[in-house]
């Protein structure tokens, strides 16, 4: 089976510092992958290289059977690769619905063809997305009116507005309460069940174990483990480097 995402020999340096060292990673269509590791392990650098925010010096990234090397971040998004950010970045002067309208116009309609949406269809899509994350009642409110968890839900909805094949969720649960974490877990699993492949970067191990079908672990720019979550968290190298002895 051809992987949806195939990362081969990916390497990235910042001056003399090796941020990523020959990373190999595959993600299958429909899979939920947890990507974990201590701070500074290279998780964000890997995501940035996959998404096109950074350009790797060595190796390659293939998505849906096509090479992404040389493509900008927005070109990769239009091909079906979306991400949420650890720190939400909504347009503060626009309503929640307008915040979703922008990625629809910029990605979905920019692809052209039969998938393009007219004005009424865009409005309906915005309502559907806000309903999906529980924010329909606040469609005309500004981001400043949202709670922390609502801001995270808006960030996920903005990513989903691009109709991605793959969603990379970057620490969407940081700072949330136990019950709020459960809400985001349920949302990510529901999105996955609707056909979206998910890569989740997270430090909350309860959430990682509940969401992930497979775990990959980065430490100091190297992938040290990759496999079923229950096996990975018992791996001696993972226990020593990440979970503590």
Most strands sheet? 6 strands, mixed
Mean pLDDT: 92
Which CATH class of the largest domain applies here?
Alpha Beta
CATH architecture of the largest domain: 3-Layer(aba) Sandwich
Q: What's the order of the H and E elements?
A: EEEHEEHEHHHEHEHEEHH
| CATH topology assignment of the largest domain | Rossmann fold
- Which structural class do you get from the secondary structure elements? alpha/beta
Total strand segments: 10
Question: Can you describe this structure?
Answer:
By secondary structure, this protein is α/β, with parallel strands linked by helices. It folds into two domains: about 1-80 and about 170-245, P-loop containing nucleotide triphosphate hydrolases (Rossmann fold); about 85-165, no CATH class. Helix content is about 40%, strand content about 25%. α3 packs across α4 and α3 packs parallel to α5 (about 150-160). The protein starts with a strand and ends with a helix. The model has no long low-confidence stretch (mean pLDDT about 90).
Task: List key phrases describing it.
10 strands; 4-stranded antiparallel beta sheet; 24% strand; Rossmann fold; 245 residues; 2 domains; 9 helices; alpha/beta
Task: Give a brief outline of the structure.
This protein is of the alpha/beta class and 245 residues long. The protein is built from 9 helices and 10 strands.
Describe the SSE topology.
Blueprint: E1 5-14, E2 17-27, E3 32-36, H1 43-51, E4 58-63, E5 66-67, H2 73-78, E6 81-84, H3 96-111, H4 119-132, H5 148-160, E7 166-170, H6 178-193, E8 197-201, H7 205-211, E9 214-219, E10 222-227, H8 229-232, H9 236-243
Parallel strand pairs: 3-8, 3-9, 6-7, 7-8
Antiparallel strand pairs: 1-2, 1-4, 4-5, 9-10
